[in-house]
């Protein structure tokens, strides 16, 4: 039997319509929330860009962990944190509003001064000689005795070229304070045998991971906030991929075919084998050590972009601190050698050397560049600089890389 | 008799009237909710403005363009103003004021002064 109970039907319809309205409102409020979320993220990213500009203009006076408001009529709070990451300063910018925040980390250094000379050679009372296919583009600071073009090995087909002005250098090589790693306050040791997936990616918002290696590092990808240390010679195989990592060992060898970027801190020496590509921004530094000989060797067809730094120990140790850049090796950036440099490859940038030498099987020619290239005009527009040569110190801050 | 099997009892008039009132209220409320949501601030317009602002911010940064302007884009206007941000700092504060028929938004940006090489 069917009973026509209109009221019951009406209540039923009321419920249906209620559910329908509720669903519509839920969908609407969800989409609104999503929109607001993306708007807020966008706003925070935009704000972080402004904060980065603020940090560039005010880098020296930035106070870590102090909250500031860049725009008084906005409620976004910004915090800057300045720390060291190897050679570079690491700047963290955090913008936050309500419970949401955006964090960006940058490697920061001084921007390269456009007036940086191609070559600075300490005045050691001998003339500076160029020979063979040597080519130097840019100003040079050389001993008072001046620049001389010579022919050796009966090679009179190629003419060495220098384009630029000549200035006198000082008898004392511009000293540089030692580059130090600057260990983070907190770090955790990671056993290399515990790495299962052949890769460790550690963000800069995490605690620094330190990996101790016996001799050889292979079949591994390391990226970010990681330091690799060794008590002995550290060999980096071509199966390793490194990015932004710090390496520390007495001696470090990059094997044929390796590609990546790293900051290298060695005490005895570094060897960069052929076909190795060390990408921007890489650092190779061999620190002060008064006892043994130290060397940095770039084999032919190796590529490097960044800063090469040989810390010296004064004039008496000039001969035992050496950098050798072989033919077809290509470096971009700066080479600082408080020792003796032999240049046969290409340096797209600047060379600062206490002494130069070209060695044949029988003779060692002092202050001579034979077939080497120093091309200061080939440095990319935005490149960092090590500030040690007072007149050329740049005050402009460069955000080298977002990490 | 075929229809004696199903007897249909009619509701009272009062009951029917109440039912009709409830259903009318329901439909009216549902329509109002629906119309409010559909006719809310048209998001397309909002996205057009945001896109324009993103373009302008990008252009300003890329070209280091610190020239102020006032532009009309049909239903909304954008005014760009430039002032120095705090003393001693080589920073410009660039503000974009967007005015639509009902609302005003401001987007602010800090930019480093261009260093002449």
From TrEMBL, chain B:
Q: What keywords were assigned to this record? A: Membrane, Transmembrane, Transmembrane helix
For whether the record's keyword set contains Membrane, the answer is yes
Q: Where are the transmembrane segments?
A: 12-35
Domain of life of the native organism:
Bacteria
Any idea what this protein is called? ABC-type dipeptide/oligopeptide/nickel transport system permease component
- This protein's species is Mesonia maritima
